[in-house]
Amino acid sequence: MASKLLCLALFAPSLAETAQKVKVEFFAEAGCPFCRQAIAGPVNKTLSMPSVAAIMDFQFFPFGNAYFVTTECKGAGDYDMAARKCFNKNCGAGASQPPKDCFTGALVCQHGSQECAANRFLACAKTVAGENLLPFMSFTHCVEASYDTFSKDTVSACADASQIDKDAVFRCYSGSEGDDATVAQAKATPEHPGVPYLLVNGQAVEQPDDLLKTVCKAYQGSEPDACKSMDTWPTHPIILQV
Ligand SMILES: *[C@@H]1O[C@H](CO)[C@@H](O)[C@H](O)[C@H]1NC(C)=O
């Protein structure tokens, strides 16, 4: 009997650890108001609770409704939603036979060059941060919070505050590494009705404020304490950027 208990005591923690992490994929672009709201609100809250951050496999893809002009989807000039949707379908995550010119044409961002620049800085920060999700997401949080006065100084200050190597970020931004980082986000972005777009284990979460609730519900291991207190969170309805 005693040995059986000992056995359980030894194995229980490792069993808990083997519960699969909840896969969270977040797709957004710099500057869109409800993307910023989601980043400042539910995304920040969820990542800021270490016990919850620990049960998530969280990924953020800073590309949103941007697209590259292709022969089939077109879309040169101003942002064109139909071209964007065509691009996501033909060239994004899950595309079965992406054409060769998916990422060779002009890049079009929904709200112009500042958004393209900020997305590229975010993609570079993601590359520089590597496996270190929290510095990257702190950087994202900082850039989005300062988006109205965005400049290179914003990037410097946010990199310093998030302990991301700012020289590496600027080097990436100015070179082909920045192109690669941007293409990687574009490739990983699936078809989506609008942004912000959140998937938990592949299922869309309509209200970003439901992120924590959804993650807690999806987790098969023992529930972190932080999961027990969140039923009372208010929901702020969002408007998608389409
Ligand atoms: C969360 O928000 C705080 C400010 O309220 C910020 O300092 C912190 O970097 C943010 N963390 C993440 C992971 O976004």
UniProtKB/TrEMBL annotation:
Localization (cell): Secreted
Pfam families, A to Z: GILT
InterPro entries: Interferon-induced_GILT (IPR004911), Thioredoxin-like_sf (IPR036249)
GO CC terms of this entry: extracellular region
Single Gene Ontology MF annotation: oxidoreductase activity, acting on a sulfur group of donors, disulfide as acceptor
Span of the signal peptide: 1-16
Highest taxon listed in the record's lineage: Eukaryota
SUPFAM superfamilies for this protein: Thioredoxin-like
Keywords: Glycoprotein, Secreted, Signal
Main subcellular location of this protein, as a coarse class: secreted
Matches recorded under PANTHER family: GAMMA-INTERFERON INDUCIBLE LYSOSOMAL THIOL REDUCTASE GILT, GAMMA-INTERFERON-INDUCIBLE LYSOSOMAL THIOL REDUCTASE
Similarity comment: family membership: Belongs to the GILT family.
Protein's name according to its UniProt entry: IFI30 protein
Gene from which this protein is expressed: IFI30
